[in-house]
């Protein structure tokens, strides 16, 4: 993994946008994530679009996951969220921004169809990721197979609690989701994971320096030939080799 440590979340967003712009301007297939962490990067990309520095008109996008049981029109569905925070503000072709069908009658069939749609599109060129406090990526909770495909997943109680801030209360949070599996995610040509804040520091430590383990699903990035992890100082604070990562980053050839 390439570990980039920046002083603030705003600097994390800028560094991530620098990478994403290159792919978008090349008309790449983009894997998008929702949640709080990517929002600053999406805002940075929107600002660059308004300055005519980037275009998404030749790109298509696939979302990581979707709640089961929410209609696409629900404000907390990821179909709606990604449009509200990002894609409707730039020049994406809307029908090319795809997400799992969380309100499908047959979740297993919808999951398989989504996995196939990604393959049919030629795969994802760059997949944006966040990390949960328990080490999940997408909604791949601890114990997920490192080779799993897009599927129905039961949300961990910690994930439900973490996501309750987006709903009226904890009881309103869906308990199931359709998520790209760890095997599906790993097929993307470039993985870009962002993490900010001290609440992510232990998960980041386990992902980067811990053993490869289903206990920390994000540790699957250790196997990927091109994974970039961008952290603020708080998220990086528990890394044993913090100073080494800073040195490597500062002396990286350009």
Automatic annotation (TrEMBL):
Q: Cite the annotated pathway.
A: Amino-sugar metabolism; N-acetylneuraminate degradation; D-fructose 6-phosphate from N-acetylneuraminate: step 5/5
Q: Which residue range or ranges hold the Glucosamine/galactosamine-6-phosphate isomerase domain?
A: 25-223
Keywords for this protein = Carbohydrate metabolism, Hydrolase, Isomerase
UniProt KW Isomerase keyword: yes
* Residues the record marks as active site: 65, 134, 136, 141
Q: What is its EC number?
A: 3.5.99.6
User: What InterPro entries does the annotation carry?
Assistant: Glc/Gal-6P_isomerase (IPR006148), Glucosamine6P_isomerase (IPR004547), Glucosamine6P_isomerase_CS (IPR018321), NagB/RpiA_transferase-like (IPR037171)
Give the protein's function. Catalyzes the reversible isomerization-deamination of glucosamine 6-phosphate (GlcN6P) to form fructose 6-phosphate (Fru6P) and ammonium ion.
Q: What is this protein called?
A: Glucosamine-6-phosphate deaminase
- Organism placement in taxonomy: Bacteria, Bacillati, Actinomycetota, Actinomycetes, Mycobacteriales
